[in-house]
Amino acid sequence: MGEFSRVGKWAAPAFQVVALLLMVTWSTAQGDDGLSEGAGDEVGVSWYDGGHDYVTDRLQRAAVWLDDFFGDPRAEKEKQASAYMHVVLDAFYSGVEDQSENGVRFRGGVDLPKLDRRLRLLVTSDADSTVTGRELAGTAKDDVKDTDGAVGLSYLFRDRPGHKFSLGGGLSGGLSPALLLAGRYVHTRHWTTNTASHVTSTVYWKSEDGPGVSTLLDYEWSPDADTLWRTTLFGNYKEEIRGLEWSAQAKWAKRLNSKTAINVRGGFQGQTEPNSVLSEGWLKFLYRRNVLRPWLFYELEPGFSWPESLDYRGEPTFAVRLEIQFRRD
């Protein structure tokens, strides 16, 4: 029976990956009928408005390009590809006992036809991280083994400049799946030509753990078209523990050329229940390069971790990742 459970645990995520890849392939094979639209009206735009918009868009593209190059989930929310799939072969080493992991992570989505690109089928190898929004927060270690895959649907009810609201539901786990429901609102505000903030608020419910609510705040500064500074604050209140899980991270990212980028990030995380504690701090340097094909990337990420379990004694970490991307815009 134990062997059967292990097979079931691997079979479910494997089926999700194969199913989504088939849908991505189907979507890619479709023609581009109906994609050509007439040019928007640009009459009456003054030269100074046009210049302001040009500078703003150019600096905003730095954040979009860097997120897209690094495979950050934020990029999918901005670019809205009609079909995508990211598969990551991940090997993570930590000097902290029982934190080294290796395996396969994945996430993907595909727009369902004839619904104005608002209804999307989604799959992920880490249901909890995706539903709560923690996948955007940054962590000290790679979560590969102790995660449950999920498949679900998300419908975008509102999509206006600065405002997005969606509702979704799905199933996670293997032979005895859990039900997931979530509502998410994203508010974006551009403060200057090179600064912006994004607030992501999520209310969710999991049949196994009950309800929860999370908020994530990004504050971004792009001093030039190749550089991004981002500060991220995250809080997740879980009814299961009647407490708050929180984290804070600062990141600097730099495009070196069209095929290479680096980033440096540091942060810490903790919780308020069952004991209020700062559980871990980290500092990481990441080198990422596009090789051989436009859809193939590798990463090297050395770093240090300061866990509460070792009385905050510094321990080295190192991650090697190979990422394959499938996409149709």
TrEMBL record:
Residues 1-31 form the signal peptide. It comes from the Bacteria. Keywords: Signal. This is Porin. It comes from Thiorhodococcus drewsii AZ1.
